[in-house]
Amino acid sequence: MISPFRRDVVVTGFVLAIPVFLLGLRGDLSLDDVTIRLLWCLGAGWVAVALVRWASTPPSPRRGPGAAGPPEDSAAPAGGAVG
């Protein structure tokens, strides 16, 4: 679980909040609308960073009964020479 206040989450949230800031400065949104939408931008930044981190993490190797390698053939002579 990642913290909602990590640097990459906060930066992503602020990037997503740029249009909200601009609409607030232009007068299209009230101060209450801007503050509520900033919280949504932080949440969206957290989801975006979590999704990117999940997608970029390589899968862990699976260990199972067949993961030890191919079974050795006991009928073949040592050294690999036939005859």
UniProtKB/TrEMBL annotation:
Chain segments carrying region Disordered: 58-83
Residues annotated as transmembrane: 9-25, 37-55
Keyword Transmembrane annotated: yes
Keywords: Membrane, Transmembrane, Transmembrane helix
The protein's name: Uncharacterized protein
Source organism per UniProt: Modestobacter marinus
